[in-house]
Structures are given as C-alpha cells and as structure tokens.
Amino acid sequence: MNFVKSLFSYIIIVLVVVLIRTFLFTPAIVNGSSMEKTLYDGELVIVNKIKLLSGVDRFDIVISRIDDELLIKRVIGLPNEIIEYKNNCLFINGELVEMPIEFEETDDFYYETKDDEYFLMGDNRDISKDSRIIGGFFREDIIGIVDLVIFPLDKIGFVK
Fold first, then answer.
1. Is 114 an active-site residue?
2. What is the reported pTM?
3. Cα-based angle 70, 147, 113 (whole degrees, multiple of 5)
4. Could you say which of 34, 64, 128, 131 is catalytic?
5. Which candidate, 144, 154, 140, places its Cα nearest to that of 27?
6. What CATH number should be reported for the domain holding residue 144?
7. Over 80: is that where the pLDDT of 103 sits?
8. Is position 73 annotated as part of the catalytic site?
C-alpha cells in the first residue's frame, strides 16, 4: 500500500511539471547570435506562455516556430501594419517610432503585415534570419514571450 501511495505522489508531481511546462512556462536555450546584445548564444531563458493570453506587444521578445526551427526574435510590427525602415529609422503606418534600445544600422525595407501576422527581427540585424528574409510570423507560430534569463548565473534577470 505504501508503494502505491509513493507511486501516486510521483505521478502527481510529474503531471504538475508537465502541465506547468506545457501551459505556463518553459525553458529555452538561445541558439546563435541573432539577438546579441540582448541575449547571447547558450543562455537559458524562461518563456512565459501565460502572457500570450493578453496579447503580443511591440518590442516583446518572443520565441516562435518556423518549420521545425525555434527562433527568438523581437516583435517590430503588429497585425495590419506597414513597417518601414528608412535611414535607420523605424516607421509604423508612416509615423516615426522610437526604439527601446539602440540597434545596429538597419538597411531600408518595407513590409505590410496581414491579419494575425507579426513582423519579427533579431537585435543583431546584420546576421539575423528574420521577417525581412522569412516573411511574417502568424500568432499560432508564437509559443511565448521571453521573460527571464536564468543561466549563466551572472546574467540572471528580466529581459528588456
């Protein structure tokens, strides 16, 4: 009988962990340097899936799926917007938008998002494989919002 109680306890623990990881938070490892100077290759981050319920905001850092690949990028354009870079300045629907951090020089481009489509870019613009190359990302491709770096220990903190 004690064995059954112990086994039941372990099953409950495993179920709780699986539910948390599936629906609330999940860890992810940054792969590559496309998000440098914000996130670095090999860092372990926590992806918040709960925040998706309230929507995705401009400049959030999200993890998304494209084919079988997971990408971590910054949201630049929201659905039904005209995104344009001219002379290293971001314009959304023709209006200048201040960037939250300083980025490397970005080549001029123009893109129009559709319903439920987001324009994502890496912070390391020179090497990032992002919406300028791949095209827009749809809401169902976005897994969660990157909230926190938890490894390496000297980098623990919230992501900006």
1. no
2. 0.83
3. 55
4. 34
5. 144
6. 2.10.109.10
7. no
8. yes
